[in-house]
Write a structure and sequence with these properties.
about 260 residues, mainly alpha, two-stranded antiparallel sheet, two-stranded antiparallel ribbon, about 50% helix
């Protein structure tokens, strides 16, 4: 591939052309091809129809390419590539079935791999209403940032949206970590709001904001809300570990219920 770029500038006496190093404008791509046979492994469920056969083949190939991509990043330290996952791909992909011997194409078709929008839009049709809401949100955010005590739920909401964005870009493990941070921020924000409603002094609220999360779950929030939250305290790490394991295996059928 050849690339050429010129930069032109105007000066009082003459026009100059600045040479650009062509090596700095190169763009390269790495293609990886994964193939699999139409056979069932011992650790796989039976395929009940053709769609499940295609899904099994797709997940095998995606797992192999993901392993290659991750190994490449770990070996080279290159940070510009992203993890591969079902949710990070285009909603529809083209597939071909090849004859075992001649490798002639038997059939070609498309199948849906996720539920992402094919052509997402940044704003809905009622742009004026949304723009007004955004302007209002920006004003409230500036007020919060300038206040002595910022709004306690902004960080939690932002992290939750970031977690969803990470999941849709293939960073499933990072998505779980952001979601856990969002949950902790949400519960700490709830504790702050409850203390404000009770008229607790600002210094005491600030001090309580730094208590360990386990103490927040076991003592602080139950005292404010009533009841016990030991179940969440005991099972929080187990749920997180299950989610991380499902994310590393790109198992959407296990990951989505855990997130919910």
């Amino acid at each position: 591939m050849r690339a050429r770029a010129t930069a032109r500038g105007r000066c009082s006496r003459s026009s100059r052309r600045t040479a650009v190093d062509r090596s700095a404008t190169k763009s390269t791509q790495t293609w990886a091809v994964a193939e699999t046979l139409d056979v069932k492994f011992d650790n796989e469920p039976d395929a009940r129809n053709e769609n499940e056969v295609l899904t099994r083949a797709f997940e095998r190939c995606l797992s192999a390419i993901s392993l290659l991509s991750e190994s490449s990043r770990l070996t080279t330290g290159e940070i510009w590539s992203s993890p591969l996952a079902r949710d990070s791909l285009d909603p529809e992909i083209k597939y071909a079935l090849l004859a075992p011997g001649s490798r002639a194409t038997l059939t070609e078709n498309y199948f849906r791999v996720n539920h992402r929008k094919i052509n997402p839009v940044a704003l809905p049709h009622n742009e004026q209403e949304v723009s007004a809401l955004i302007r209002h949100a920006v004003a409230r955010r500036l007020e919060s940032d300038a206040a002595a005590s910022p709004h306690p739920f902004i960080t939690a909401r932002s992290l939750a949206l970031e977690a969803e964005n990470q999941r849709l870009h293939g960073a499933s493990s990072a998505s779980i970590v952001s979601l856990q941070a969002s949950l902790e921020s949400l519960l700490r924000g709830l504790c702050t709001m409850l203390h404000r409603d009770l008229g607790t002094p600002v210094g005491v609220i600030t001090e309580k904001g730094g208590i360990p999360f386990e103490s927040l779950l076991k003592r602080e929030l139950p005292g404010l809300l009533g009841g016990a939250m030991e179940w969440l305290s005991v099972n929080r790490r187990r749920i997180r570990d299950q989610a991380l394991q499902a994310a590393q295996q790109d198992c959407a059928c296990r990951l989505c219920p855990i997130i919910s």
